[in-house]
From TrEMBL:
Residues 192-313 form the Eis-like acetyltransferase domain. This is GNAT family N-acetyltransferase. InterPro entries: Acetyltransf_17, Acetyltransferase_Eis, Acyl_CoA_acyltransferase, Eis_dom, NAcTrfase_Eis, SCP2_sterol-bd_dom_sf. It holds the Pfam family Acetyltransf_17. Residues 317-419 form the Enhanced intracellular survival protein domain. PANTHER family: N-ACETYLTRANSFERASE EIS (PTHR37817:SF1). Keywords: Acyltransferase, Transferase. The active site is at Y133, F422. Acetyl-CoA binds at V92, T93, V94, R100, R101, G102, L103, L104, G105. Homohexamer; trimer of dimers. Belongs to the acetyltransferase Eis family.
Length: 422
C-alpha cells in the first residue's frame, strides 16, 4: 500500500482495501450530503460501485476518512467508432471540514499520471459543478438536454406498430438478458458512449436495491425488428395524477436506447401514445436528439434542462488523436499546454477518415494552433468548435485559416453523447 503524506497538514492519501470500504463509503456519502446511509447500504455498496483494488483512494486525517476518489476503466467510443480505454473518475469528495486545502488537487496529481501509465489515453467524469475540473485539464466533452413534451400538442396519431417490427412490454429479467447486447451495439455507434458492466443492469433493473436509491419498479418496453432481434429499450415510470376527471399522469423516461432509427422512432411514438399521459419528460438526451422533429409540432417539446455533462481529460495525446477518425484528410500541428506536465507538447496530426489510421507524432514544426489541454478535451469528441474557442481567445490561431480547417477535421454530423451517470 503506498502512502502520500501532505507536506504540513498531516493528511495521508492511501489506497483503501476491503477492510476500509465501509468507512470510505460513509465518507463518500457524507461528501455528497447524504446522511441517511444504512448498514444495508454500506454492505451493498461494493456490489453497486465498481471498487478496483488499488484504485479506491482515501484521504485520512488520522483514522478518519476525509477524502474519497475512485477510478475504474471503461471503453469510450470516439468519433468514427474507434474505441479507447478511459479512466472513469467517480466518488470524488472531500469532507466539509477539510475542503479548500488542496486535497482534491493531491488526489488528482496522484491518480491522473497513474492512469496514463496504465495506458488509459483519457480520463472521464461527470462534473458535479462546472468550476471544479477545468484546472485539472478537463473540459466539457458532451452535453445533455431534457425536454418536457406537451403530449396532446404533438400532433402524433395513435401508436401503430411499424411494419415488421413490434413493441412489447417486458419484465426486468428479460431486460437483463437482452439489454447488454443491445447496449453494446448502440454504444459503438455513439461517440461519447461508454461500456457498461453487468452491475449496471442489476442496479438499473432493481435486482440490487440499496435503500438509499429508493428503487421504484418502472415499465420496460422492448422494440424487436421483423427477425425478432431486440433493437430498442424504453424504461419509464408514470405518476398516477389526475386533475378532477382529467388524467395528467406524467410519464418520465428513465432510459431510452435504440440501435436503429426504426427502433428510435417507434419507441418515442409508443411513449407519446400511452393513454392518460398529458406530459412526457424525456430524461437526459443528446442536445441534437431527433425527438422534437418527430412531432407534428416540435414546439410541443420544451427544453427543461440543458448543460455540460461528461468531462474529459486527455492523458496521452497521440493515442487519443489516433483512436478517432476525422471528417477529411489533412495535417495540423498542435501546441498543447498542460500545467500538470502530463500531456503537453507539440504534435503533428496527419488525419485519416478511418479510426486508428491517423498518424500522430511529436514534432518541432511550427504550430498551427496553440491551446491548453482542457480545450483539446472539449474538442476531442467533436462537440466543440475550434473557431468558437478561438473567438473566446482560448485557442491561438497561429496559421491563418487553421481554426476553420481544424473544425472540418474534428466536428461530427451528430453530437457526441454519454447517456450514463457514473
Ligand atoms: C466526478 C465526481 O465525483 S463529481 C463530485 C465532486 N464532489 C462534490 O461536488 C462533493 C462536494 N464537494 C467536495 O467534496 C469538494 O469541494 C471537492 C471534492 C469538489 C473539492 O475538494 P477540495 O479538496 O476542497 O479541493 P482543492 O482544495 O484541491 O481545490 C483545488 C482548487 O479548486 C477550487 N475548487 C474546488 N472545488 C471547487 C468548487 N466546488 N467550486 C469552485 N472552485 C472549487 C479550489 O478553490 C482550489 O482553487 P485554488 O487552487 O485557486 O485555491
Amino acid at each position: 500500500m503506498s502512502h502520500d503524506r501532505g507536506q504540513d497538514d498531516g493528511v495521508d492519501l492511501r489506497a483503501v482495501d476491503e477492510d476500509g470500504y465501509a468507512a470510505w463509503t460513509r465518507a463518500c456519502h457524507r461528501g455528497f450530503l447524504r446522511s441517511a446511509i444504512t448498514d444495508e447500504d454500506l454492505a451493498l455498496s461494493p456490489s453497486v460501485l465498481e471498487m478496483v483494488p488499488g484504485r479506491v483512494l482515501g484521504a485520512y486525517d488520522g483514522d478518519r476518512c476525509v477524502g474519497t476518489f475512485r477510478t475504474f476503466s471503461r471503453e469510450l467510443t470516439a468519433p468514427g467508432g474507434g474505441l479507447l480505454t478511459a479512466c472513469a473518475v467517480s466518488s470524488v469528495t472531500v469532507t466539509a471540514t477539510h475542503r479548500r486545502r488542496g486535497l482534491l488537487g493531491r488526489m488528482m496529481a496522484r491518480e491522473l499520471p497513474a492512469a496514463r501509465d496504465r495506458g488509459e489515453a483519457v480520463a472521464i467524469l461527470i462534473a458535479a459543478e462546472y468550476p471544479i475540473y477545468g484546472r485539472f485539464g478537463f473540459g466539457p466533452a458532451t452535453w445533455t438536454t431534457e425536454w418536457t413534451v406537451d403530449v396532446p400538442r404533438t400532433g402524433l396519431g395513435r401508436y401503430e406498430p411499424p411494419r415488421g417490427g413490434r413493441v412489447d412490454l417486458a419484465e426486468a429479467a428479460e431486460v437483463r438478458a437482452a439489454g447488454p447486447a443491445l447496449h453494446d451495439r448502440f454504444r459503438r455507434s455513439v461517440p461519447g458512449a461508454i461500456s457498461r458492466d453487468a452491475r449496471w443492469w442489476q442496479v438499473n433493473t432493481g435486482e440490487i436495491q440499496p435503500p438509499i436509491r429508493q428503487w421504484r419498479d418502472p415499465f420496460y418496453a422492448l422494440y424487436r425488428d421483423d427477425s425478432g432481434r431486440v433493437d430498442g429499450l424504453l424504461v419509464y415510470t408514470v405518476e398516477d395524477i389526475w386533475e378532477g376527471k382529467l388524467p395528467q399522469c406524467p410519464l418520465t423516461v428513465r432510459h431510452a436506447l435504440a440501435a436503429t432509427p426504426e427502433a428510435e422512432r417507434a419507441l418515442w411514438h409508443y411513449a407519446l401514445s400511452v393513454d392518460w399521459t398529458a406530459k412526457l419528460h424525456t430524461g437526459p438526451r443528446p442536445p441534437d436528439d431527433v425527438l422534437p422533429l418527430l412531432l407534428g409540432d416540435p414546439r410541443a417539446a420544451q427544453v427543461t434542462t440543458h448543460g455540460d455533462y461528461m468531462w474529459l481529460r486527455v492523458l496521452d495525446v497521440p493515442a487519443a488523436l489516433r483512436a478517432r477518425s476525422y471528417g477529411t484528410t489533412g495535417s495540423l500541428v498542435l501546441r498543447i499546454h498542460d500545467e500538470a506536465g502530463i500531456a503537453g507538447g507539440r504534435y503533428e496530426l496527419n488525419a485519416s477518415t478511418e479510426p486508428g489510421a491517423s498518424e500522430v507524432r511529436t514534432t518541432t514544426r511550427d504550430a498551427d494552433l496553440a491551446m491548453d489541454v482542457r480545450e483539446l478535451a472539449a474538442l476531442y469528441l467533436g462537440d466543440e468548435s475550434v473557431v468558437r474557442l478561438a473567438t473566446l481567445g482560448r485557442i491561438e490561431e497561429l496559421t491563418p485559416g487553421a481554426a476553420a480547417r481544424a473544425d472540418l477535421l474534428t466536428r461530427t454530423s451528430r453530437r457526441p453523447w454519454c447517456p450514463d451517470m457514473f
